[in-house]
Amino acid sequence: MLAVDGAAVAHARIERTVPLVFSMSGETFDVGVDTGAPVGPYPHGSPCTAEIHGVTLERLSEPGAAVDAAVRAGLLQAGLRTQ
Q1: Which of 22, 23, 38, 67 has its CA 20 to 30 A from that of 74?
Q2: Which residues contact residue 44 at a Cβ distance below 8 angstroms, ignoring those fewer than 6 apart?
Q3: Rg of the chain taking only CA atoms, in angstroms
Q4: How far is the C-alpha of 65 from the C-alpha of 78, rounded, in Å?
């Protein structure tokens, strides 16, 4: 849910996300400014001019065995590539 001044203005469900650490690909989970690739129609590094009071992320369920296996494989590959 996205709230502005305490009022809900949007709600969405993300069906799938990347099962690895975002910073491994150069992307980050930024709030207020994109230091990686911008997610909107604005240039890289543009700061948010609004006041952000908080960000809450909630996992609605635990990942299954396939996601756990993908995470382990991805971490192994990332580790091998940084040797």
Answers
A1: 38
A2: 34, 37, 38
A3: 16
A4: 20
pTM of the model: 0.34
- List the chain pLDDT tens, one digit each, 83 residues: 777 877 888 888 777 666 555 555 556 666 777 766 666 777 777 777 888 888 777 777 788 888 888 888 888 887 887 77
Q: What is the DSSP code (8-state) at residue 1? A: -
List all residues 6 or more positions away from 63 whose beta carbon is below 8 Å from its beta carbon: 19, 71
- How many residues are given for the chain? 83
Total domains in the chain come to 1
| Domain carrying residue 75 | 2-81
